[in-house]
Write a structure and sequence with these properties.
single chain, 272 residues, Rossmann fold, 7-stranded parallel β-sheet, 13% strand, NAD(P)-bd_dom_sf, SDR_fam, NADP
Amino acid sequence: MREWNGSVAFITGGGQGIGLGIARALSKRGVRLALADIDADALKRAGEELSHVTETQTVPLDVRDRDAFAAAADSVESALGPVDLLFNNAGIAPSAPVSQWTYEKWDVALGVNLNGVINGLQTFLPRMIERGTGGYVVNTGSGAGLIPNRSVLYTTAKFAVVGLSESLRLELSEHGIDVSVLCPGPVNTEILSNTGSVEASLSVLRGTEASRNSVSYLKNGTSIDDVGEMVIAGMQARAMWIHTDDFVRDVLRTRVEALFDSFPTPAGAENA
């Protein structure tokens, strides 16, 4: 595999959660870091921590803002050098029953979880391709991007991120740019409270038993530092999918088998 020491990584959602775990893992390997996050306080703490390990720049960023994305890219590449490791990681966990959907809620849910990924790709890929020196893209999807569940706003975006990543890997292979999609299970982050900070009406934290179960589910999940190391291992293996556990395995197998069973029997096969 390529030597990453001295490379530059741009990480959205890099001030906290999985993004911070990835940043910590990269910093140990001599990667220079550009951390982008909408949370200024988290971004400051992460920058102070990681600047003691490697060269680090922080940039406030709402991944829905394309102009801000381009400005952040210019600033980072001017200070640190060309970005060749891109982590489209920023995300929220929107929750709303179908009876409460609005266009505005869809815009927020897809704006962060899907368009945020697209904006990162559209900002950095032309630069990577023009340089012709290769690179690596890791998009953060979810186990919910592999199996359906009742969180429709979340699942829709994450299925799209998985499909985008699988197709992008084929497209970018001729440019020497690898692509992986991270499909985490439960991870011990503050994504539920952070979602409410972006859009209160999409927060699952409503004081119900279901919301308490969601909080407990994540608190007992994989640590962000372990996820960071799993991402590095997946990149070293050039894995298409990077998982943090096997919680979707059985449901995914059932889904795939059902898909195969749904195909019509080829003509004449029943008499073979």
